[in-house]
Write a structure and sequence with these properties.
The model has no long low-confidence stretch (mean pLDDT 76). 28% of the residues lie in helices and 28% in strands. The chain has 2 helices and 4 strands; from the N terminus they run αββββα. The chain has a 4-stranded antiparallel sheet. It is an alpha+beta fold and 115 residues long.
Amino acid sequence: MPSKRMLIAALVLLNVVLLTAVLLSSYTPPAAIAQMAEDNEEMAPAPASPGPETVLIAVQADASNDVIYLFDSRNMILHAFRTPFPRMAGQPVDVTYAGWRDLSREFQRQEGRTR
């Protein structure tokens, strides 16, 4: 039969495990907050309404450079965002707006070509 001291230690351990489970199940991460660009003049016009007209494409350009492309098919604009390397473990990912390009001329050229 286990001693009284072992039984108390087991009950204390069980209480710690249960308390940890309750705390972890009730934790909710903070809501994400969108950031405004530092220089709004460089940004392309925003679409009238976001929806299925936008496509997000994540690309590893090379070993030290990730790029996120956001294609707005309604306005034919391609936005680019970069994530710098190296990243420190446990640090948030820093995403910066790299620029935009109007693709309407490229799509018009493709439509005008004969096949």
